[in-house]
Specification:
The chain contains 31 helices and no strands. By secondary structure, the chain is an all-alpha fold.
């Protein structure tokens, strides 16, 4: 009696040589040999992907005759076999047995089913029609909750099949957790007509991508998009949607979105930041005191576009302690607007507010002055810099092909003092770093 082996052992080291040994795989005697401690099922699994069509045919026939759950994986793969005799065996089995496969088999073989659906040689083949028909039937029988357990690409494929046919799954489209799947109703503006409730749900979808695709869907239709609908999009939280809607409001209805924002109360008034006009600077400064992260982000972006040096009128440590979006907006401008002393004063603030604060600080200093970066880097090493900080310093110093920045006498003395202290350490990496700095200093 043969001992059954789980298919997962295909990846085991003791079977790797089977896949690598061409001569052994291409002889039927290899699979019949009693010297190999492989189960018959395992030999058939390996043989079903053999280079020899005769071996694949024999092993596939053996798998089908002694079928066990999980073997459908090997059978599905042979549906696309380039040898007609092998493919016909697999196609016949799939046509007769696909209906009886459990729902779990769909999830386990989702990538393989998608591969078959895209295979050019199978387009129009009755076996592919059978697979598509049974896929839709199985998910309808299993229900929507079970359907959501399938991989998103397979769900998308099944939904497209249904929409191209009887549309039995149309109600499930807008309830799909994947935004790409929810938007497949919008793929053919010239053919698709949305129900009023579907249009409402698209406009209020939680995904900006879906809302943007819906807006483009509406703009692609022959029916002219209404003024009120465009105004609704002009007040969307996402700037890209606001800009598209604002453009078409002006083009189709002669309405300026900027004037709409100026006449609006509440947080929506700060959408004037999209235009970053200097005359609205008082609005942006006032918005920095808002409790809304989105408003503060909009306002700081507009302030930096108008004049980055206006950041000096604000509390920079407070900005760095703000949301990630505000911090990401402010950081690139600091080397330009702050002097060396101001940048150095921000070190403790960055260490306190950012997980990689030391690296961020050194990056800012490097953009301001290479030699100031070297001094700060040596200072950080003296204080016991973490491994990621040391790697960052080595990458900058050792990777620099040439240095043309001038080195002032006071900074040269400070760097030399740091180097003297560090050269007493036994770490080869730090000593190499010090040697590179000393060498560079001779020629500047």
């Amino acid at each position: 009696m043969h001992q059954e082996v789980d298919p997962a052992v295909l990846l085991d080291e003791r079977f790797r040589h089977i896949l690598e040994n061409l001569d052994a795989r291409t002889h039927l005697a290899f699979y019949r040999g009693k010297a190999w401690s492989l189960s018959r099922r395992m030999r058939d699994w390996v043989g079903s992907i053999d280079y020899s069509g005769h071996v694949r045919e024999e092993c596939l026939t053996s798998l089908i005759s002694d079928y066990l759950p999980g073997d459908e994986n090997r059978i599905f793969l042979r549906v696309a076999d380039w040898v007609p005799e092998v493919a016909s065996i697999a196609k016949r089995w799939v046509s007769e047995n696909f209906r009886e496969l459990p729902f779990e088999s769909l999830a386990a073989n989702s990538r393989l089913l998608l591969f078959l659906s895209r295979r050019e040689s199978l387009q129009g083949d009755p076996v592919l029609d059978c697979i598509h028909r049974e896929l839709q039937r199985k998910v309808l029988d299993a229900g929507e909750i079970a359907f959501h357990s399938l991989a998103a690409p397979l769900r998308r494929h099944i939904l497209r099949l249904s929409l191209a046919g009887d549309q039995a799954l149309r109600e499930w489209v807008l309830r799909d957790p994947d935004p790409s799947n929810r938007s497949i109703l919008l793929e053919s503006p010239e053919k698709t007509r949305l129900a009023p409730d579907e249009a409402t749900r698209f406009r209020g979808d939680r995904s900006a991508m879906v809302r943007r695709r819906y807006l483009r869907f509406r703009l692609s239709q022959r029916e002219r998009i209404g003024r009120e609908e465009l105004i609704e999009f002009a007040f969307d939280r996402r700037r890209g949607l606001r800009q598209i809607a604002g453009f078409y409001l002006k083009q189709l209805h002669g309405l300026d979105a900027y004037e709409l924002y100026r006449d609006t109360e509440g947080d929506a008034r700060y959408f004037v930041a999209d235009y970053a006009k200097p005359e609205d600077l008082d609005v942006f400064m006032a918005g920095m005191a808002s409790g809304s992260k989105q408003v503060r982000h909009l306002c700081i972006q507009a302030i930096c576009k108008i004049d980055p040096f206006l950041l000096l009128k604000l509390d920079i440590p407070t900005l760095l302690a703000d949301s990630k979006l505000v911090r990401r907006t402010v950081l690139p401008y600091l080397p330009e607007v702050c002097d060396s002393a101001q940048l150095r004063s921000l070190r403790h603030c960055l260490l306190r507010t950012l997980p990689g604060g030391e690296v961020s600080y050194l990056h800012l200093i490097e953009r301001k002055s290479y030699w100031l970066f070297v001094h700060s880097a040596l200072e950080a090493i003296s204080e016991g810099a973490a491994s990621d900080v040391l790697e960052h310093i080595q990458r900058i110093v050792l990777g620099r092909a040439q240095v043309v920045a001038r080195l002032s006498a006071p900074l040269r003395a400070a760097i030399t003092e740091r180097l003297t202290c560090l050269q007493e350490m036994d770490d080869p990496a730090i000593l190499r770093l010090c040697q590179r700095v000393e060498f560079t200093m001779r020629y500047v």
